[in-house]
Specification:
Elements (H helix, E strand, L loop, with lengths): L8 E4 L5 H12 L3 E6 L2 H13 L4 E5 L7 H13 L4 E4 L14 H35 L6 E8 H5 L5 H21 L4 E8 L16 E4 L2 E4 L4 H10 L8 H12 L10 E4 L6
Parallel strand pairs: 1-2, 1-4, 2-3, 4-5, 5-6, 6-9
Antiparallel strand pairs: 7-8
Length: 276
């Protein structure tokens, strides 16, 4: 069975690189117009160039999602650019790890902010458009399905040592997903979550002698995984390897497509069978 997303508009947060960029690319390939967002303007320009060179409709809106008013601005920018929002993928995130006795309040709160508070604010910002549009469609006898996909992790479903903040934020996403599925079913919105295992991104790259890091709110945060741990994951994973961003994006695409029109409040684990 084939499908198209022609005429649909998608908003994908954290889509400057990695999994987010792959999601934006998949949606665009299927015909959707895409608003891409990231903190890194340079990465966003690269994403826009990539999709634009493929003849796809794409706009960018850079900025810090954790600023309280930014999600409202992002939603409004999407409506101004395309006139509608039909798909929302809450993908933005990063990890700031530490065992609990070494985790500061700021560190823990940062993980809740980006992984749970931000999706809540984005969905709240979009709620007026989604509800009002759905009411008009229903009054006209039309059934138009819209899609929300929140990104969680096996750290959220299973827990993971050294990630109390990250795991808590990702676990909270499940409650948000299931609640919105019940609130928005009447508006013909499917609300689901995809939980990733270890996917090949800069957050799961092998730590080198010169450790890689990302800059967030004045902090240099180390990213990467010890080579020994990666090898142990591959050994424990039934598929024997890490996933690719394209494979991760394909799981999200299912929930964005008409194939999932009668699926809501669910979590799909895309982790090659691996669990912590």
């Amino acid at each position: 069975m084939s499908f198209t997303l022609d005429g649909k508009t998608a908003l994908v947060t954290g889509s400057g690189r990695g999994i987010g960029r792959a999601i934006a690319e998949k949606l665009a390939e299927c015909g959707a117009a895409v608003m891409v967002n990231d903190l890194d303007e340079g990465a966003l320009r690269e994403t826009k160039y990539l999709l634009g060179s493929m003849g796809k409709r794409v706009e960018v809106f850079a900025g810090d999602l954790t600023q309280p008013q930014f999600p409202d601005q992002l939603v409004q920018a999407t409506l101004d650019a395309f006139g509608s929002i039909d798909i929302i993928v809450n993908n933005a995130g990063y990890s700031w790890d530490g065992v609990i006795q070494k985790t500061t309040d700021e560190q823990f709160q940062a993980m809740l902010e980006i992984h749970l508070v931000v999706p809540f604010r984005v969905l709240r910002a979009a709620s007026t458009h989604i509800r009002d549009t759905a009411k008009r469609e229903i009054a006209a006898g039309k059934q138009v399905m819209r899609k929300v996909v929140n990104i969680t992790s096996i750290a959220g479903t299973d827990g993971n040592p050294g990630q109390s903040g990250y795991s808590s934020g990702k676990a909270g996403v499940l409650g948000l997903t299931r609640t919105l599925a019940k609130e928005w079913g009447r508006y013909n919105v499917n609300v689901n979550a995809v939980g990733f295992g270890l996917i090949e991104t800069r957050l799961t790259q092998v730590l080198r002698d010169k450790e890689s890091s990302i800059e967030m709110r004045g902090h240099s945060i180390r990213v990467g995984v010890q080579a020994e741990m990666l090898e142990s994951v591959k050994t424990a994973c039934p598929l024997g390897r890490l996933g690719t961003p394209a494979e991760a994006a394909s799981a999200v695409l299912f929930f964005c497509s008409p194939l999932s029109d009668y699926v809501t409040g669910e979590v799909l684990i895309c982790g090659g069978g691996f669990h912590f």
